[in-house]
Amino acid sequence: MWFMSAHDNHRMNQTDLDALQGAVRLADWGVIRAQGADATSFLHGQLTQDVQHLDAQAARLAGYCSAKGRLLASAVIWRSAADELLLACSADLLPATLKRLSMFVLRARCKLSDASDAVALYGLAGNAATAWLGAQAPAQAWQRADAAQGQVVRLPDAQGVARYLLALPAAAAAPALPALSDAAWAWLEVTSGVARIVAATVEQFVPQMVNLEVVGGVNFQKGCYPGQEVVARSQYRGTLKRRAFVFDVDAAAQPGQEVFHSDDAGQPAGMVVNAASLGQAHRALVEVKLAALDAGTLHLGAAGGPLLRRGAQPYVVPLEAAA
Predict the structure, then answer these.
(1) Which tens digits make up the pLDDT trace of 13-62?
(2) Fold of 199-322
(3) CATH code for residues 22-178
């Protein structure tokens, strides 16, 4: 079932690249701070990721699941001090995520707080960002380094464009880089194929449905966490029938919007995970039934709605590769 889209061979022209260079304050992201002697062990027992062995040179993608294995949030997590970790997640679901995590702290020596007002998050992109970071620019995805008064995490590239997450004290000066638009950053985020759970998609997906384990967001060797049995069963019993793919769309899409197959107007075939528009172009990461890819077409909102066309998938989806 796996095939390479013609878009895979598309090379950006200089105008395209210029639009995807610079820095933007990520107003739609927030930060949870976990402090204390038990902060590491507490988060290790709550997230899909191995936090126990997370060192100061690395960051990791992680999911936070319900008992049914459905994603309540996704986050980029890194160690900011010996007994302090930061989790960057979607701002619109941060309060609910923080409240739920706090319910399970109990006697653990771990203090959880919303650090969004104290920590400013910036998205950096392109060669200009790499040059500005200089020797502090992490070379590979999910590496972390100290830089520019704060900390920087290398995110997976998007169609050859380098991406970084920079955390600075709120009072620090913004990076001395060209302004990157919110739309351009969102475009890169969707193009990377790395899902970010937002309020509209809470509890809609098991991690594998949005390829979280493919991009390094699930550790199957670690101990238990909420929903672990469901996630493990989806991985090892071969029952997963839905995955996420990058699509180019004929109209703007929104997270949580349903997608329909041309041959079934009554039953949704999938859901938009993340979406972006850049100029007149529209793109979305869409979770979809694998069977819906065999024939027919996919449409946004209704069986007769705007057409979805398979775009460049930045990684191989395991079930497709095996099919």
Answers:
(1) 444 667 899 999 999 999 999 999 999 999 999 999 999 999 999 999 99
(2) Elongation Factor Tu (Ef-tu); domain 3 (2.40.30)
(3) 3.30.1360.120
